[in-house]
Design goal:
The chain has two helices and three strands. The chain starts with 30 loop residues before the first strand and ends with a helix. With 93 residues, it is α+β, with helices and mostly antiparallel strands. The radius of gyration is 17 Å and the shape is extended. The longest helix has 12 residues.
């Protein structure tokens, strides 16, 4: 084994590894956003699309995940954080 190369024994999971949060319909999740969101733009048929991704701790499933959101859903998080309810219940720690 080549210890100078940390990628020498790394295997890429064929199923994606489960690092992405894929919410199930009807299931409630308790999440904590960890850090800042990453903004990325992709194009499809020459049309740009902005999405956001953030690391979250998923208390429901007991694991860290990456949560990918379209711009509209991310705006709802911003609106909640800026609302009276959000200032009471959404605390940055």
């Amino acid at each position: 084994m080549n210890t100078a190369n940390p990628y020498a024994t790394h295997k890429i999971p064929s199923s994606g590894g489960g690092d992405m949060l894929k919410p199930e319909d009807g299931k409630l999740y308790k999440l904590r956003i960890v850090g800042e969101a990453v903004v990325y733009v992709s194009t499809y048929d020459d049309k740009p699309s902005t999405s956001y991704a953030m690391a979250v701790w998923n208390f429901t499933d007991g694991q860290a995940s990456i949560w990918r959101l379209p711009a509209g859903s991310f705006q709802q998080i911003i609106d909640l954080a800026n609302s009276e309810q959000g200032r009471t219940n959404c605390k940055a720690t």
